[in-house]
From TrEMBL, chain A:
Pathway connected to this protein: Carbohydrate metabolism; tricarboxylic acid cycle; fumarate from succinate (bacterial route): step 1/1
Keywords recorded for this protein, A-Z: Electron transport, FAD, Flavoprotein, Membrane, Oxidoreductase, Transport, Tricarboxylic acid cycle
Provenance organism: Streptomyces alfalfae
Record flagged with keyword Transport: yes
Annotated residues for binding of FAD: 12-17, 34-49, 221, 383, 399-400
Reactions catalysed: a quinone + succinate = fumarate + a quinol
Name assigned to this protein: Succinate dehydrogenase flavoprotein subunit
Main location: membrane
From TrEMBL, chain B:
2Fe-2S ferredoxin-type domain location: 23-117
Protein name: Fumarate reductase iron-sulfur subunit
Domain 4Fe-4S ferredoxin-type: 158-180
Catalytic activity: a menaquinone + succinate = a menaquinol + fumarate
Record-linked InterPro entries: 2Fe-2S_ferredoxin-like_sf, 2Fe-2S_ferredoxin-type, 4Fe4S_Fe-S-bd, 4Fe4S_Fe_S_CS, Beta-grasp_dom_sf, Helical_ferredxn, SDH/FRD_Iron-Sulfur, Succ_DH/fum_Rdtase_Fe-S
GO term, biological process aspect, one: respiratory electron transport chain
E.C. number: 1.3.5.1
Main EC class the enzyme belongs to: oxidoreductase
Manganese is among the record's keywords: no
Family: Belongs to the succinate dehydrogenase/fumarate reductase iron-sulfur protein family.
Entries under PANTHER family matching the protein: SUCCINATE DEHYDROGENASE [UBIQUINONE] IRON-SULFUR SUBUNIT, MITOCHONDRIAL, SUCCINATE DEHYDROGENASE IRON-SULFUR PROTEIN
Cofactor dependency: [3Fe-4S] cluster; [4Fe-4S] cluster; [2Fe-2S] cluster
The species this protein was found in: Streptomyces alfalfae
Length: 584, 256
C-alpha cells in the first residue's frame, strides 16, 4: 500500500474532470485519478453540440436559455443553478475556443450554431440556433481540447487507477472528506490519496440498462463510493432515454440529425411527431419524443417484422450536408447496419443515455450530506453530480455545457478550499473496506457469474423501469434487484492475479450497478406522478402539490447489518418561473 | 427517395438484420501473462455468434462465458474512445468497429496486441511511450498577445484546412502499424505527427515553427518511408501519410 498526499484529487478524466483539473492545477498541487486513459472518457462520444446563447446567427439570450432548461426539466430544475448554467455558457464556449477547440464556423468566421431539441426563441415560440458544434463530434473535440490543455498545464494523471472508496471522517460532529482509496489496475496495488479536497467527476451509470448509448465503463463508481459512505443520492429515478439510438445496439445518433432537418417516421411513413408536439415536432424535448416513439410502437405502427422500432429519415437532406454536418453518425449506420443514409432510413429506438440524478451539490460544486449541510472538502461535477440543472429531463447540448461550467466552478472552489484548509487526518486502516472487498472477490468460490447477473440486471431494468413505468413493473424490478444482490454475494471470478485484473474490476463495477439500480427503482416507486423522464402510467400527470421536490436517498444500515434505503425530499429552488403545463 | 413502408420491407429485408443463423467461429488469441509464464502462446476459443456482431462482442463472449482471465481494454464500443486497437487477422483495427462477417469467419480469426509497444498482459500494451511522443510535439494551441473578448475568427476554409487531423482518437493503430516504429521506438510515429499537423495548419496557432523544429529531429518526420500502413490502419479514415507529407513539405518551404 502506498500513501500519496495532494491538495486536490480529481476522480475521473472526462470533460468535467479535466475542466476542473485545468483550474485546480493552476492553484494547487493536483492529481487526477482515472480508470481509463483520459481521452477514452465517454465525453468523447457526445455529438451534437454545446448550448450557449451567443446569438451568432440569430437573436438569442441567456434568459431564454434558462427558461428552456427549466421547462425542459419539467420544473424540477433548481432555477438559480439553471440561470448560472445559461449565463456562464457564453464564457464556457469562448474559453474552449480560446483553448483551441475547432468549432464549425459561420461565413463571418464566428462560431456556427444549430437547432436542438427544446431550445427555443422567446419562451417556446420556435426553435432557435443555440448549439455550438464541431460537426457531429463536438464531445470528441471537447475531450481532445481539454486533454491538450491538461498537457499544456502539466496536469498530473494517474491512469488506470480505480477509486473504490471515499474516506469520510467525522471531526467535531462534522463529516469531512479525508481522501480516497484507489486500486491500480496494472499492479493490483492499493493506494491511499490523502487530499484536502476531492472532486468526483466520474460520469454516469447507464450500464445498468441493456440498450444504452453508454460505454461499458459507465458503472456509477463515484455515486456508489459516496452512497456507501452514507451520503445521499438525489433524483436517481430520473434517467434520460435518448430517442435515437441504433436499433438493438443503442449507439447514439445525435439529435443534431433532427436539428439538421431529419424526420422520425413510423411504418406508414408518417411524420408522427406532428401529432405529439405540433410546434417543435421532431425537436421536442427528449422525454416527449421517446414516449411518442414507444406509443407508436405500442399502437402497432412500429417498423420491421416485429414492429419494434421506427425510422430516422435523412434521405431528403443533400449528401453534402450529411457529409459536412453528420459524418460520424452516417458512418455508424454504414458500419453497424450496412445502411446508406443517403438513400435509406435508419432504424432507431430510444436508448438509455443520461442520469439526471446523482451526488447532490450546490452551485459551487460542494457535495451535500443532507438538504443543506456541505461536506467540507468534497466536490462533484458533471453527470455524477446533481446540481440540479437538468431536473426531470436534460435538454440536449446542456450536458457538454454542464461539465464545462460546473467542472470549472468545482475546480476553482476545491483548489481555493485546499489553499485555506489543512489535511483531515486519515482514519485508522483507511484501506480496510477496499482490501476486504478485493480479497473477498479474489478468494470467492461461489457459483454465480458476473456476466450472468449483469445481463439479468440489464434485462429487468429495460423491461421494467425504462420509458414507461407502473407500480407493478417497478416492484418487479425491485424484487429482481434484491434477488441479484443476494446472488452477488455468491459471485466468483476466474482471474485471481494482480496484474490487469479486469475480471475483478468488472465484479466490483457490478456491485456498484446493483446498489444504484436499487436506489433508482425505490426512488421511482415512491414518486407517484409523471414528470420529465419519469413516466408512471398509473399516475400519468405531474403532481406539483405532492412531488415538486427532489428525492434524496440514503443508505441505512441497521444494528443487525441489514441495509435499507431511506427516502427523504428536498425543496426545488424556484426564482423566475412558475410551473406551467409543458407543451412543445 | 423512398418513404419507408412495411411493403418496402417485404420486398427487401432490412439491411443488417435479416434472419441470419449463428455461425461457429474460432478466435485464435495471442495470450501472455507474466504472472503465469514468461512465454506468449496462441489459444483457440470457439463460439456461436451472429456474424454481424463485432470482434469486440466475440472477445466479450470469451471473457464472460469461457475465460475470465482474457484481458483487453475497451470502453465505448463504437469506435470513438480508441481503447481497443488490436491486430486482427494481421491488420490493425478497432475490435469494436470490425464486424465478424467482414473478416472471413470461415477461418480462425487471429487477434494479437498491436506491435512496437511492450505487451503487459494478453492484448494490453504499455501506452505510455505512445502518449509521451504525443506530448512531445506540443499538442495544444499556442497564441501570443492579448486574448480577444469574443472568439477568434476563423474562416470556414481555414477551419477545413486541418479538419482531417482533428479526427484522431489516439488509438495508436497507425503508429503501431509503422515498420519504422517497430524497428526504432524513438521515432515519433504517425499519431504524434498527425497531432502536430492539426496545430501547424490551424490559422489561429503561432507555434508552427517550434513544432516543425521538433519534427525536423533525427527521430522526426524524415524517418517516414511512406509505406501507407498508417493510412490503411486509421479507423477514423484520416489520410495519415498525406498529413506527414504536408509536414515534410512545410519543413522544406516553411510555408503552412
Amino acid at each position: 500500500m502506498k500513501i500519496h498526499k495532494y491538495d486536490t484529487v480529481i476522480v475521473g478524466a472526462g470533460g468535467a474532470g479535466m475542466r476542473a483539473a485545468i483550474e485546480a492545477t493552476k492553484r494547487s498541487r493536483t492529481a487526477v485519478l482515472t480508470k481509463l486513459y483520459p481521452t477514452r472518457s465517454h465525453t468523447g462520444a457526445a455529438q451534437g453540440g454545446m448550448a450557449a446563447a451567443l446569438a451568432n446567427v440569430e437573436e438569442d439570450n441567456w434568459e431564454w436559455h434558462t427558461f428552456d432548461t427549466v421547462k425542459g426539466g419539467d420544473y424540477l430544475v433548481d432555477q438559480d443553478a439553471a440561470e448560472i448554467l445559461a449565463k456562464e455558457a457564453i464564457d464556457a464556449v469562448l474559453d474552449l475556443e480560446k483553448m483551441g477547440l475547432p468549432f464549425n464556423r459561420t461565413p463571418d468566421g464566428t462560431i456556427d450554431q444549430r437547432r436542438f431539441g427544446g431550445h427555443t426563441r422567446n419562451h417556446g415560440e420556435a426553435a432557435v440556433r443555440r448549439s455550438c458544434y464541431a460537426a457531429d463530434r463536438t464531445g470528441h473535440m471537447i475531450l481532445q481540447t481539454l486533454y491538450q490543455n491538461c498537457v499544456k498545464e502539466g496536469v498530473e494523471f494517474f491512469n488506470e487507477f480505480y477509486v473504490l472508496d471515499q474516506l469520510i471522517v467525522e471531526v467535531d460532529g462534522v463529516k469531512k472528506s479525508a481522501g480516497v482509496v484507489a486500486y491500480e489496475l496494472a499492479t493490483g496495488e492499493i493506494h491511499i490519496f490523502q487530499a484536502k479536497a476531492v472532486i468526483y467527476a466520474s460520469g454516469g451509470t447507464g450500464k445498468f440498462f441493456k440498450v444504452t448509448s453508454n460505454a461499458h465503463t459507465l458503472t456509477g463508481d463515484g455515486q456508489a463510493a459516496c452512497y456507501r459512505r452514507g451520503l445521499p443520492l438525489e433524483d436517481m429515478e430520473f434517467f434520460q432515454f435518448h430517442p435515437t439510438g441504433i436499433w438493438r445496439m443503442g449507439i447514439l445518433l445525435t439529435e443534431g440529425a433532427r436539428g439538421e432537418g431529419g424526420i422520425l417516421r413510423n411504418k406508414d411513413g408518417e411524420r408522427f411527431m406532428e401529432k405529439y408536439a405540433p410546434v417543435m415536432k421532431d425537436l421536442a424535448s427528449r422525454d416527449v419524443v421517446s414516449r411518442s416513439i414507444y406509443t407508436e410502437i405500442r399502437e402497432g405502427r412500429g417498423c420491421g417484422p416485429e414492429g419494434d422500432h421506427v425510422y430516422l429519415d435523412l434521405t431528403h437532406l443533400p449528401p453534402e450536408q450529411l457529409d459536412a454536418k453528420l459524418p460520424d453518425i452516417t458512418e455508424f449506420a454504414r458500419t453497424y447496419l450496412g445502411i446508406e443514409p443517403y438513400t435509406d432510413p435508419i432504424p432507431i429506438q430510444p436508448t438509455a443515455h443520461y442520469a439526471m440524478g446523482g451526488i447532490p451539490t450546490n452551485v459551487e460544486g460542494e457535495v451535500l450530506a443532507d438538504n443543506t449541510t456541505v461536506v467540507p472538502g468534497l466536490y462533484a461535477a458533471g453527470e455524477v453530480a446533481c446540481v440540479s440543472v437538468h431536473g426531470a429531463n436534460r435538454l440536449g447540448t446542456n450536458s457538454l455545457l454542464d461539465i464545462n461550467v460546473f467542472g470549472k466552478r468545482a475546480g476553482i472552489a476545491a483548489a481555493e478550499y485546499a489553499a485555506s484548509h489543512d489535511f483531515v487526518e486519515l482514519p485508522e486502516n483507511p484501506e480496510e473496506l477496499v482490501v476486504s472487498q478485493v480479497e473477498r472477490l479474489r478468494d470467492a468460490t461461489g457459483a454465480e457469474r458476473v456476466a450472468e447477473l449483469r445481463k439479468e440486471l440489464q434485462e429487468t431494468m429495460d423491461a421494467n423501469v425504462m420509458v414507461f413505468r407502473t407500480e407493478q413493473t417497478i416492484k418487479t424490478a425491485v424484487e429482481k434487484i434484491a434477488e441479484l444482490r443476494e446472488r452477488y454475494l455468491n459471485v466468483s471470478i476466474q482471474d485471481k492475479g494482480k496484474r490487469f485484473n479486469t475480471d475483478l474490476l468488472e465484479a466490483i463495477e457490478l456491485g456498484n450497478l446493483l446498489d444504484l439500480a436499487e436506489v433508482m427503482a425505490q426512488s421511482a416507486l415512491a414518486r407517484k406522478e409523471s414528470r420529465g423522464g419519469h413516466y408512471r402510467e398509473d399516475f400519468p400527470n405531474r403532481d406539483d402539490v405532492n412531488f415538486m421536490r427532489h428525492t434524496m436517498a440514503y443508505r441505512e444500515v441497521g444494528d443487525d447489518g441489514t441495509e435499507t434505503i431511506r427516502l427523504d425530499y428536498k425543496p426545488v429552488v424556484q426564482t423566475r418561473y412558475q410551473p406551467m403545463e409543458r407543451k412543445y | 427517395m423512398a418513404t419507408p413502408t412495411l411493403e418496402k420491407e417485404d420486398a427487401k429485408p432490412e439491411a443488417g438484420f435479416a434472419d441470419s443463423p449463428y455461425i461457429t467461429v474460432t478466435f485464435r488469441i495471442r495470450r501472455f501473462n507474466p504472472e503465469v509464464s514468461a512465454d506468449a502462446v496462441w489459444e483457440d476459443f470457439q463460439m456461436e455468434i451472429d456474424p454481424k456482431e463485432r470482434v469486440l462482442d466475440g472477445l466479450h463472449k470469451i471473457k464472460w462465458e469461457q475465460d475470465g482471465t482474457l484481458t483487453f481494454r475497451r470502453s465505448c464500443a463504437h469506435g470513438i474512445c480508441g481503447s481497443d486497437a488490436m491486430r486482427i487477422n494481421g491488420k490493425n483495427r478497432l475490435a469494436c468497429k470490425t464486424l465478424i462477417k467482414d473478416i472471413n469467419p470461415s477461418k480462425p480469426i487471429t487477434v494479437e496486441p498491436i506491435k512496437g509497444l511492450t505487451v503487459l498482459k494478453d492484448l494490453v500494451v504499455d501506452m505510455d511511450p505512445f502518449f509521451q511522443a504525443y506530448r512531445d510535439v506540443m499538442p495544444f494551441l499556442v497564441t501570443t498577445g492579448n486574448e480577444p473578448t469574443r472568439e477568434r475568427l476563423q474562416s470556414a476554409e481555414d477551419r477545413e484546412r486541418f479538419d482531417d487531423t482533428t479526427k484522431c482518437i489516439l488509438c495508436a493503430a497507425c503508429t503501431s502499424s509503422c515498420p519504422v516504429f517497430w524497428n526504432d521506438g524513438q521515432y515519433f510515429g504517425p499519431a504524434a505527427i498527425v497531432n502536430a499537423h492539426r496545430f501547424i495548419f490551424d490559422s489561429r496557432d503561432e507555434a508552427g515553427e517550434q513544432r516543425l523544429e521538433i519534427l525536423n529531429d533525427k527521430d522526426g518526420v524524415w524517418r517516414c518511408r511512406t509505406t501507407f500502413n498508417c493510412t490503411d490502419a486509421c479507423p477514423r479514415g484520416i489520410e495519415v501519410t498525406k498529413a506527414i507529407q504536408e509536414v515534410k513539405r512545410a519543413l522544406i518551404t516553411r510555408r503552412f
